[in-house]
Every structure is written in structure tokens, then in C-alpha cells.
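Quick one: examine this chain and its C-alpha cells and tell me how the chain folds. Here goes:
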Amino acid sequence: MGKKGSAVFIVILVIAIGFVLFLSVPIGGKIGLVREAMVSFIFRKPPRFISMEVNVDGAPRTVKPGESLLIKGTETVVITKIKANTFFDSYLTADVVGFGNTNDLHEPLETSQIRDQLLAAGLRSVPIDVYYIEYNIARIPLEMELTEQDFLDRVKGSKSIDDQIAILKSAHASFPKNREFVAKLDDLLTEKNDYEALAGIYKAMTEADPEDIHAHAQLSRCYIRLGMFREAMAMSQKIVDKGRADSNTYRRMAYIAGQTGDFDTRVKHLRKALELAPGTDSIIIDLGKTYEQAGRNAEALEIYKSAAGKARDREILIPVIEDALRKKNDKEAASLLKRYVTHYPKDGNAYAQLGMVMGRLGDADAQVAYYSRAVEISPKDPVLLYNLGASFEKVGKEKNALEAFRRALAIKPGDKDSLLRAAALCLKAKDYQSSYGYYQSLLKVEQSNEYRKGLVSAAVGLKDHEKIIDAAGQYLKHAKDHDAALALAYAYEARAASKTGRQKLEDINAAVEAYQLALKINPKSTKAQEKIPELKIESIRLKKGI
């Protein structure tokens, strides 16, 4: 090799060494970028991502490696440029994963759509992938600045409980101090009986804020639902230890004690709950039922009695009312029943009991009023209608009474008590036809001399000879009754007046027998004494004429 060749070789060697040093030694600035681009091109390596230029509502932004793009769901966003250490910018693309086009450069992004999808999925961001040909050279988080109202609107618009839960969990993570999100989550998870998931939420809240008493209380509730009574009691005890316990805390502790069969502890906690919330019906009921379950009914009744003066709940009032009725303490029963019907105005039985009690107390007008109200509520109850009729009768409103009895009979035709009352009222009102029918119905129900006698009276009122003869004849077979015998005699005598010959003679003789029976029953019967001789003479005369 000559001198010239050696020189060329040295120059080439120097250039090669320089090129190697250019490629390997760190160099900053624009020269460094050129060096990186050359390396990438020569060795076919992915270029280095430098930045992404974005226009947000007309304002430029630059996103560098390790940064994210934070936007609102209402903003207009356009990716304007991608920078990388490459000679060929045309091969650089940006794709919003799951949205937009294959290349979203210079295309306005549907940010409202992205917001809705994020809310539905319970996510905070979607990735923007930056590519150089097939190489993914960067992944930039596109984060949404979601508001509390965004989450609420999305929950409202979703029909899927699971989707709502996912959205609310994301909302709670974003806005941990918003109690509305937790409350809605509580409702939905309770509906699904997913107390394990709910317990996880409240447990995290207690760990984040040991002074969050509400979270402690709700976690205790979840533990109860999960059957974790020891954990539930421990969580409630923490509230007590902090001096923040309310009546509900002690009620939960009472419930847990009840589940474990600790009667004394349950009573202790319930009494403490009642001390903190005096006059609370539900606590009083729990305490009373606790005593009842232990067979200590007298103590339960005393608990109810102590609260009955101000109580509103039927479970407290009814045992006390029943006790007063059982002991015939009518004044107390009336007072309690009046209080009861103010809170339960549709309880017809309570008004009926009031009617009964007021009747025993001698207030007939009040009795009518309360029975009337009971019938308004239960118009098809024959017993109530009978009682209403009896109360009307007591105050002298016999037409109203009869109407009530008739309504009762329309519902229960064979009701003996209503039939008897109606029959007597009709007889008194001289409605003999109706009275006769009622007495006939009574005799179909029961063969009674009282009913037979009533039938006679109705027949006499009708002045129907045949009915009198039949009714009186039947009655006298079972009873000795002077008036019935006279009525029978009168009927035979009256019928004889319309007949002749042997038929007339038979009725005259039957009349004589009836008068003789009357005289036998009552030897001082002047009517019988007068009629017997007269009719005997008439009988002799008729015999001669036949």
C-alpha cells in the first residue's frame, strides 16, 4: 500500500471511528435528536416519543412522556401533531383506544361519548396509543375531569343494577366525601343482598377515617347480615367507647345479644336505647317482645302499660286494651280505644269495642255513634249490624234499629237474635205481617214457646182466624197460656159465624173447649165464664136443627 492508499485508509478509519462515536456517545440538543433518528433508521429501532400537540377548545397544549391529557367531557379536543426523533413524521399516528378512527390526528374527538363510556365502565381514563408504522412508541392516558353530577346523571340513565354499582364505586373513589354515592351504593347492594361488598366499602371508610361513626354503624349492620356477630358487636362497642353511641347503636347490640341467646344483655341494651330515645314505640315493642319470648308476659305488659299513654303503635296499645277489657276496666279501655282509633281510624273492630264499652258505661248515644262507625267500615258484618240495631233500640230509635236488623238478616237470614229483635219491633209497630213471618223463621231455627207465643200475637194482630187457630193450637200443645186459649176460642167463634150446619157446630164446640181451657188455666177468667154458657146453648140449638 502506498502513501496515498494509507492516507485514504486512515481517513476512512477516522470517519468510521467518528461515526461510531457519533452513534454511541450521548449528545444533547438537535444534534442528539438527529443522531437518535439515524440510529433508529439504520438499526430499524422504534423512535423515541417526544410530545403530543393538542388543541383543546382552541387552546394549544403539549403532552410529554409520563404525562396525561386531562380534559372535560364538554370540551372539543383535536390532536394536532406527534413529535418523535424520526425523519419521517408522516408515519406517526395517534389512536384513542376504543374510539374514533384508525388515526385520530386532526379529527375532533367525541369527548361526550368517551365520558359516557368511562362512566359506564367505572373508569377514569382511556389510552391514546402513539404509533410509528407498526411500533407503539407511547401510551398517553386521556383522563376525564368528571363531576359529581356526571356520575349521578349516568346512574339515573342506567337500568342495570350492576352498571349502577360500578359507576357509583368509581364515583365514591373519586369523591370519597360524597355521602350520596355511598347511600345509593348501600341501597343497591342491599337490594342484591351483597353485604360482603358493602362491608368492604364501609370497612375502607372506617380505616380512612376512624372517627366516621356512620361508617362504623353501617359496617356493624353489614356484619350482622353476614352472621358475623362477634365482629358486629366489636364494631358497635367501638362507637360506645368513643362516646358517640345513640339509641340505634344499643338496638344493634341488643339484636346481636338476642341472636346469641343472651337475654339479660339484650334487655340491658334495649333499656339503654330507650333511655336515649324515650317514648320510641319500636324500642318499647322490642323490649316487650323480649320479655314475652322469655315467658315473662306480666313484665312485658307493664312495659306496654308504661308507654300506652303516649304510644301510637298497635303492638303496644292492643295488649293494654285487651288487658283492660279482660278486667272490665271500662273507663281505661274507653280511653285507650279512643286513642287507638285516632291512629287507626279504619279498624272497625276497635269502634265496635268502643261501642260495647260505652254501652256498659251508660253512654247510649256514644254507643250508637261508635257502632255506626264500625258498620261504615264493615257494612257486611251481621254481628256489627245487630249490635247497631240493639244500640238504636236502646235510645228509642226503633225504625233505625229495625233497619239495622233487616240488613243483618239480608246477610245472615237465619240469625236468631236479629230475627227475634225484628219480630218484636214489627209486632210493636203493628206490622203484623212482617212479625208473623219473622216468628215463623224463628220456629224453623228453634222450637221455642217464646217464638210460638209471638206467632200467636202476630196472628191475632192480623185477625186471621186460620193463622190464630194454627198458631194458638200449636202453642197450647206445649204451654198453658190463658191469653192464647182465649185467642183460640175467639178464632173458632169468629170462624163459626161464617159457617152453617155441622161445620158451624164443630167450631162452636171447639170454642167452648178453648174457653174451658182458659178457665182451667185462670179460674177467674170472666170472659171464659161468660162465653161458656152462651156457646153451650148455641151448641144445643144447632144440634136440634141438624
Summary: The chain has 26 helices and eight strands.
